[in-house]
Amino acid sequence: MTRHQDDKVLRALLGPKGPELSCEQCFEQLGRYAELELAGSNADEAIPGMRAHLEGCPACHEDHASLRAFLNSGH
Fold first, then answer.
1. 69 contacts 75 by C-beta, under 8 angstroms
2. pLDDT digits (tens, 9 = 90+) for 11-40
C-alpha cells in the first residue's frame, strides 16, 4: 500500500476531525455546496461537516463529483 492509501484507510477508521453531516443532510445541501465551490467561495466554512462527509461516504462523494461535472458543463 502507498502512503496515500494508508492515510485514506486511517482517516476512514478514525473518522472526521470535526463535525460531519448525515447522508440526508448532505443531500439537502449538496447543490448549494457545489455552487459555492464553483463560485470560488469557502464552501467548507459555509457548510461545516460537508467535506468530512464527502471524504468518508463513497455514495455522496460520487453524487458530488457528478453534480460538479454537470454544473461545470454549463447546464
1. no
2. 666 555 666 789 999 999 999 999 999 999
